[in-house]
Amino acid sequence: MKLEDIGEFGLIELIRKEQSPQGGEVLVGIGDDTAVIKQGGDDYLLLTCDALVEGVHFHLDYTAYRELGWKAMAVNLSDIASMGGVPKYALVSLCLPPLTDPLKVKEFYWGLRELGERFGVGIVGGDTTSSPVLMVSIALIGRVRKEHLVTRSGARSGDSLLVTGTLGGAEGGLKLLKRGRPYPKGMEGIIRRHLTPMPRLKEAKLLVENLEPTAMIDISDGLALDLSHLIEESGVGAEIWREKIPLHPQAEEVAKILGGSPYDFALYGGEDYELLFTLPPDQVERARELLKETDLTSIGQILPSDEGLVISVGGQKSPLVVKGYDHFSK
Amino acid sequence: MKLEDIGEFGLIELIRKEQSPQGGEVLVGIGDDTAVIKQGGDDYLLLTCDALVEGVHFHLDYTAYRELGWKAMAVNLSDIASMGGVPKYALVSLCLPPLTDPLKVKEFYWGLRELGERFGVGIVGGDTTSSPVLMVSIALIGRVRKEHLVTRSGARSGDSLLVTGTLGGAEGGLKLLKRGRPYPKGMEGIIRRHLTPMPRLKEAKLLVENLEPTAMIDISDGLALDLSHLIEESGVGAEIWREKIPLHPQAEEVAKILGGSPYDFALYGGEDYELLFTLPPDQVERARELLKETDLTSIGQILPSDEGLVISVGGQKSPLVVKGYDHFSK
User: Does A20 score more than 80 pLDDT?
Assistant: First the structure.
């Protein structure tokens, strides 16, 4: 038996079973975007980490070190956003081939800081070591006011399902990057979506401070897989309306050039780092006003658990195929 | 210019310069065993991370996955110990080749938990991804009572310099492991010192709760290099007495078999994960009583900064050569 046989989610299931018994100060352990730790005062502590590996998550032939630093910070910030929290401190584990140019390491840190400082994150420590491939793992520590915490598990039947921004851009951009230069004209925006995503911390803050989102997750593995996590943790079903999925404005054009469906980019591509959340229907209008600078789209609704996860296309419902990128699959 | 030209410490210096401006809630940032964060209540938060990379820090032909889990936890626990703290929560970034046997991943977690639970650590989150080589990075979050915090920077001229346990064992054990089986008889102990070190959390707790250690560091890079960090951060000099260095009981025998000096194992080998600390001389006797179950040895004294860092051998003083293992050097 090998990891490629059980896949990434088989591995996560295995690791979940090997965890220490939780409880006590651990309010949320493995299975959400961050761990949540009880402590004195008005806040919970949020703890998360994410690793990016050369050749798996990025390729240096189309990723500048500054972009890599930005993205390594962004993917962690996005996890803090999806809990309704505020990021505070980062630890950076950086594994570098000995032939790396030190200037590139500086550029990596510039990217880390450029995004981190925008949201008040201090890089307080880390570890550097040599490695045959470039690998970075960031641990991010944040805080959330107790009354602002949103997990994956609070969605209720009847809630509206919303998403910030647009989807499918990161996958469309990646497809262009993988095909290589020259890129078709006017594609800078969609390529940026892959290389330097912007985590939705501001939007999450507005939501949790003013409304009562019942569940939230960031879209890192694709709309289908991340929605399946949300409904599984909440013990509900859901329906998404395919026509309502807000596609990145260039996703359709990329699909025309390179093949594929822009809806598949959104559903199965991942790395858009938008917020997917549920809200009592009477709060949707207020959410639109609050987030008027950001696209905010109702893409479906939460159903009782026995209705499962369905997608409706032109009024026709069918079970949503749930799959995502699996690092370990053959 | 390449990293192998500037070396690990050139790289650390470069990264230090690229840090965010610190201050505010960050009491100690990069440059100690952990970061120290001010917060409400009686405690500071301690944050640290350390990565282990296959082929650099360990080889799977002589390291079982369970031992790797233990060691990945141990090196981080040791950093918390050296600040006088209590470890609490771990995040585990695990990068694995797709051909890894899932059972080996379980064994890795058993090792992590076996040591972590001994000291009350909960594994609360992490990330798994595929990778061409096995890599683990652990971020550990701990706490320390404000009055118990010990950094690298408080040593004063006249203080005694002490070390727990014995030194040179990890390097001796590694030399045997690298040479390969069969190992000479009676060498299990020294091999264990390399594979499954025991962090000195209990000893650190006894020290900070009962005495006033002025500076403390764990010996991960060898006595010479770690002492040089301590005196640099404290702005002092130091003298060590070579004859007093407590050698691992099998270090001399390994040196006889494989060549080298057991004192060099202790000074330059690293990975012993003992505590090196400074204490007002009138507290040394009390320290010995408190740590009577652990070897505790006075190995030198702190001097004014202009006396530098010296080693005395048979009463003859000479400047201590400072070097350690450099992951990046050619």
Answer: no
Do A140 and A256 belong to one domain? Answer: no
Q: Specify the residue for token string 């009847």.
A: A158
Residues A198-228: b if buried by 16+ CB within 10 A, e if exposed: bbbbebbbbbbeebebbbbbbbbbbbbbbbb
Based on the fold, state whether residues B185 and B304 are members of the same structural domain: yes
Nearest CB to B135 within list A29, A131, A139: A131
Together in a domain, B190 and B314 = yes
Specify whether B98 is located in the same domain as B239. Answer: no
The three-state secondary structure class of B139 is: strand
Q: CA of A17: which chain B residue's CA is closest?
A: B106
* b/e A143-178 (16+ beta carbons within 10 angstroms → b): bbeeebbbbbbbbeeebbbbbbbbbbbbbbbbbbbe
* Span B124-183, pLDDT tens digits: 999 999 999 999 999 999 999 999 999 999 999 999 999 999 999 999 999 999 999 999
Q: Smallest Cβ distance to B128: which of A15, A55, A57?
A: A15
Give the model's pLDDT for residue B21: 63
CB contacts of A19 in chain B (<8 Å) are: 109, 123
Regarding whether A276 and A247 lie in a shared domain, the answer is yes
* pLDDT single digits (tens) A85-124: 999 999 999 999 999 999 999 999 999 999 999 999 999 9
Burial class (CB in 10 A: 0-12, 13-18, 19+), A59: exposed
Chain B residues within 8 A of A92 when measuring between CB atoms: 49
Residues A196 and A249 grouped into a single domain: yes
Asked if A97 lies within 8 A of B3 by C-beta distance, the reply is yes
Range of the domain at A69: 23-148
The rounded distance, in Å, linking the Cα atoms of A138 and B170 is 29
Q: Taking the CA atoms of chain B, what radius of gyration do you get in angstroms? A: 19
Here the tokens at position B64 are 């079982």
pLDDT at B13: 84
What are the CA-CA distances from residue A246 to residues A82, A229, A295, A296 (Å)? 19, 20, 8, 9
Residue A22 clears pLDDT 70, i.e. is over it = no
Query: Is residue B179 located within the same domain as residue B123?
Result: no
Rounded to two decimals, the ipTM of the complex is 0.95
Q: Is it the case that residue A153 has pLDDT exceeding 80?
A: yes
Burial class (CB in 10 A: 0-12, 13-18, 19+), A87: buried
Same domain, B111 and B171: no
CATH code for position B173:
3.90.650.10
> Does a structural domain hold residue A55?
yes
Q: What residue of B is the nearest CA neighbor of A109?
A: B18
pLDDT class of B19 with cuts at 50, 70, 90 = confident
**Residues contacting A106, CB < 8 A, separation 6+:** B14, B18
Q: Are strands B122-130 and B86-96 parallel, antiparallel or unpaired?
A: parallel
For chain B, percent of residues with pLDDT exceeding 90: 89
Number of domains present in the structure of chain B: 2
